[in-house]
Amino acid sequence: MSLPILEHADKYVCRSVNDMSLPSLLEPDRHWMKLALREAERAYEEKEVPVGAVVVRDGIVLGKGHNMVEQLKDPTAHAEMIAITAACSAAGDKRLDGCTLYVTLEPCPMCAGAIVWSRLTRLVFGAFDEKAGSCSTLYNIPRDRRLNHLVEVVSGILAEDSAALLRSFFAERRLAAGPSGS
Length: 182
Ligand code: ZN
What we know:
With 182 residues, the chain is α/β, with parallel strands linked by helices. It is built from 6 helices and 5 strands; from the N terminus they run ααββααβαββα. Strand 1 (52-57) and strand 2 form a beta hairpin. The model is unreliable at 1-17 (pLDDT under 50). The structure holds zinc ion.
């Protein structure tokens, strides 16, 4: 069977073709990203910068986590690091072949490094991070051919939900800091 979407990609509009429209192909990614967003909301409730992550393999969640830097007083306690550590522990393996990491915000250099070292197959992230993003914005560590592992990257999934959560968090924090607060 031919793939009409690919043949007509140049004039593609969001239209279902044999149940293979672009939205339906992205549906699993949106599903898991919603779970990552739920983790981000937990971080928000715990007064942490709201970022959440889940590691999935064959439709099963191997690990999840949210930012816990303040609670643990640990600069490495980013959502991705916690989710990767949990997934390795669940898999009983230092490598996460065949796994996808879903994270609500573009990973920083530390997490992008951990994504490569854990040999994740795919990375799906939501909002772009202009300040520290290392998966396209400032650097592109998962796609750097000088490293010994390349990760497939999909960006912008439910990005607006993720960005809205972050905006609301920082607005609230500024309000709490008072009119003279930074
Ligand atoms: Zn990070």
